[in-house]
Write a structure and sequence with these properties.
about 200 residues
Length: about 200
């Protein structure tokens, strides 16, 4: 009988340990369980919902190797993998007069920090938009604007975007959600760009 009670105790412990396992999903999984993030009222899923859509405006691109600065009009479309995903795909269309180019990218959100990671499919270059940066971060307001810095992670390039929402959609919470309220985002100057690139 003692032998059976030992097995029953081990089985009960195994059951308890499995029942207490939390819902933890890596950023690359398609579903999101909620929680995390840096804001008490808003979470990464809110950010993904607000980011999803098409944004249009201007882009300034600093080549970290040559030091050249380029600027053009741009349209960026972010698509969630599904309604609970904090990652997805996107397309950037650059316009310079009559010429244009289309660049595909993948994106994901760090649910602990609110940082936005963008990796361009063709070049493999990854950029981060830092949610906590006071000066070189980003600001995003639902159905309104999206501006900030994309700093190279596996490269020395820097991108500044100043975009407006192309198509407004109904705010799901009844109020306009906003991210990066503490960031003081300004268009880059030559001195600013040099300082950022040397990070």
């Amino acid at each position: 009988m003692k032998r059976y009670s030992t097995y029953l105790m081990m089985l009960a412990l195994a059951f308890v340990s499995f029942s207490l396992t939390s819902c933890e999903v890596d950023w690359y999984e398609d579903n999101y369980c909620g929680g995390g993030y840096y804001d008490d009222e808003l979470n990464a899923l809110d950010l993904a919902e607000v980011l999803s859509g098409t944004w249009s405006g201007s882009m300034q691109y600093k080549d970290g190797e040559s030091g050249q600065m380029y600027s053009w009009d741009v349209s960026m479309t972010f698509v969630q993998n599904n309604r609970y995903a904090i990652k997805g795909t996107g397309v950037e269309i650059d316009y310079d007069g009559e010429a244009s180019q289309s660049l595909e990218f993948n994106w994901y959100l760090d649910d602990r920090t609110g940082d936005i990671y963008i990796t361009y499919v063709g070049s493999g270059k990854t950029f981060v938009m830092d949610a906590d940066a006071r000066k070189y971060g980003y600001k995003l307001k639902e159905n309104d604007f999206f501006e900030g810095y994309m700093l190279g992670r596996n490269n020395k390039d820097m991108i500044y975007i100043n975009l407006d929402a192309v198509k407004a959609r109904a705010a799901s919470s009844g109020k306009s959600r906003q991210f990066g309220q503490n960031a003081n985002v300004e268009a880059p100057t030559a001195a600013t760009v040099k300082k950022i690139i040397e990070h």
